[in-house]
User: Fold this.
Amino acid sequence: MNPVTVSYAPHIHNHASTSHIMRDVLIALSPALAGSVLIFGMRAAVVIFMCVASAVVFEWGYQKIMKKQETISDLSACVTGLLLAFNLPVDIPLWQAVFGSGVAIILVKQFFGGIGKNFANPALTARVVMLISFPTAMSTWAEVPNAVSSATPLELVQTGALQYMPSNLDLFLGLHGGSLGETSELALIIGGVYLIARRVITWHIPVSFIGTVYILTAILGEQPTVQLLAGGLFIGAIFMATDYPTSPQTNSGRLIFGLGCGLLTVIIRVWGNYPEGVSFAILFMNCIVPFINKLTMHHALGGKKA
Amino acid sequence: MSRYAILIKGIAKENPVFVLALGLCPALAVSSLVSNALGMGLATTLVLIGTNTVISILRNVIPDKVRIPCYIVLIAGLVSIVQMLVQAFVYPLYLALGIFLPLITVNCIVFARAELFAKKNKPFDSIIDAIGTGLGFTAALVAIATVREVLGHGSWFGIPIPGLAENSISLFSMAPGGFIAFGLIIAVISKISKGRAAKLKESGCASCPSCAACGKGGAE
Assistant:
């Protein structure tokens, strides 16, 4: 006779696990990876390798020293390292890239309790730390073959040197100065569509984030298409803002989150000192995610409103 | 308690910054350079010695109900003296410390030693306590400043360190770096001491370093 197992709901399980999700994210990032090596050359591959390898080593080392359960096999450190590398210029000194990985993994992720417990996006925080620490290295952009100027398009907008602005097609394909993974919107959109199709992320954050930036810059008299394609908006909206622990849990909350990110991005880009504001916007919104979650919490049918 | 024990506890077991977490405002604000940290620590030590002595001498004169205003007047007066001394003899330090020099008046460490020790001990013991606490504070400031100056400026006490000077991480010379360095040092200390603070709690309320201040039982 077969013993009957009585178990609690949920009874339907799709066997998703952290490593499956992270593997999907890595697959989604691979077009951008290929694009960055094609655009920036082999040095890009070296930077990416150093970031990923050091992120994994930091995670493994910390967990070994602190005698915690080892989680490097869930691939989350690989994703963090890869995303960090995508946020760096190609000529970044390698020790600085390793330092950034250390900040991301140890300071932002492990000190707060490891995967799922960080309140801010590790890769983005590391990028901002590096931007503050190494302002010169982090804003020195290499010449890109076929590109007219090594400055990022957003720097061109800020300084008013619009005669060097690449064409919209070049912007879309990524043939312009910028961080490794942010330039090619084509590759990022392919990855984003894959993630949404695999139901790893929902459309709410990317669409409301990018939509807000487009509409607001149009209202403010900027060139909305350039603002959309120029900076790190797509990599931020698709891969950074949708990070599970640092984004809201409800769909309505995600719409608010994307709206806030877009609003802050435009404010920083148009009126701020920095040419780019995506990372600051996402980090700021990361901090208020608990409030958004509380505001948009689902109530059980018949349950009391909080 | 022996006088040696009084001296040592201020430096290690009851280190004002790393164990009691007092005086964090100056500890984070003026610890970007070792020279400033040392100056701040010594100025605070000077104030502490003065206040502990005076308050200990006057401990039977000051009425208990108005002791806080009395302490404030005494401390503020002594801080003014130290401020003028620093302005007269170490003018660059006076400029570097800025507002944080007069703010020693409201430093919790000075208050804590008056309230916890000088109030109920003889003047000589109080001086030793002030020296111990002051040295503990100075040591903590110099420790934080060492991390911040070496990483943030690539130098130590103004002496450039070859290899680091060109590759400094300027975050550490800014405010967030102060918090990060402080947190890292506390983490290392509690790792080395195997979280002794937690063990103290298990051994009972009386062994808590803030026992006298909280007044809810304990040995006294």
User: Anything to note?
Assistant: Chain B has one domain: 3-214. The mean pLDDT of chain B is 85. Chain B has ten helices and two strands.
